[in-house]
Write a structure and sequence with these properties.
The chain is an alpha/beta fold and about 200 residues long. It contains six helices and seven strands. The chain has a single domain, classed as Rossmann fold (3-Layer(aba) Sandwich). The chain is about 35% helix and about 20% strand.
C-alpha cells in the first residue's frame, strides 16, 4: 500500500435538501479539503460532476463530487478516470460508513461495497475493480436494517455533527500523506484519532 493518489472522490447526493445529511459525509470531506488547499469547484458536464484541480503536497489531484445521485456515482468516477488514465489504485473515495460510530474515520484499500450504493456503482463502472482506496466516515447505525434509508438521508444529531466535523478535520490533515502514498503513516495517525 504505497500508491500515490491522483483523484479524490466524495460521495453524496446533490441538492440543498441533502445538505448535511449523513449520506453526504463524503461531499463534506472533499469540500473541507478543497477549502484547505484553495480549490475552486466548477460544474463539469462531461463528467456529470463538480470538479476541482488542486495541488496537495507536490502532486496535482482531481477532486470530484458526482452530481448523478449516489447510486450512479460510478459514472462520474469512471469517466474522469478513463479520460485522465487514472488507475483504480490511485483513486480515494470518501463515503459515509454505517459500521463505524459517528466521528470515526478509517482508511482502507479495496474490499466490497458493504451495501453502500455509491461504492457498488463505482465498482461496477470500474469493470469490477475494487482496488481503490476508501476513507470511511462513521455515521453510526440506526439499529435496524429497515431504518437505514431514512437514517442516512436525515440530518445527524448535533453532537454527531460535531464529531463528524472533527473527524473530517483529522482526515483532511492526513490527506497529504495519502496523496504521497504514505498510507501506513496516515492510517496510524488517523486511526488513533478520537472525536470526543
Amino acid at each position: 500500500m504505497n500508491d500515490p493518489i491522483e483523484m479524490i472522490v466524495g460521495l453524496g447526493n446533490p441538492g440543498t435538501q441533502y445538505d448535511h445529511t449523513r449520506h453526504n459525509a463524503g461531499f463534506e470531506y472533499v469540500d473541507a479539503l478543497a477549502e484547505a488547499v484553495g480549490g475552486q469547484w466548477k460544474l463539469d458536464g462531461k463528467y456529470q460532476a463538480m470538479t476541482a484541480k488542486v495541488r496537495i503536497g507536490n502532486a496535482d489531484v482531481w477532486l470530484l463530487k458526482p452530481m448523478t445521485f449516489m447510486n450512479r456515482s460510478g459514472q462520474s468516477v469512471a469517466a474522469l478516470a478513463q479520460f485522465y488514465k487514472i488507475p483504480a489504485e490511485r483513486i480515494l473515495v470518501a463515503h459515509d460508513e454505517l459500521d463505524l460510530p459517528a466521528g470515526a474515520a478509517r482508511l482502507k484499500k479495496g474490499g466490497g461495497h458493504g451495501g453502500h450504493n455509491g461504492l457498488r456503482d463505482i465498482i461496477a463502472c470500474l469493470a469490477n475493480n475494487r482496488d481503490f482506496y476508501r476513507l470511511r466516515l462513521g455515521i453510526g447505525h440506526p439499529g435496524s436494517a429497515s431504518q437505514v434509508v431514512s437514517y442516512v438521508l436525515s440530518k445527524a444529531h448535533p453532537d454527531d455533527r460535531i464529531s463528524l466535523a472533527r473527524a473530517l478535520d483529522a482526515a483532511v490533515e492526513q490527506t497529504p500523506l495519502c496523496v504521497a502514498g504514505h498510507w501506513q503513516k496516515a492510517m496510524n495517525q488517523l486511526h488513533q484519532f478520537k472525536a470526543d
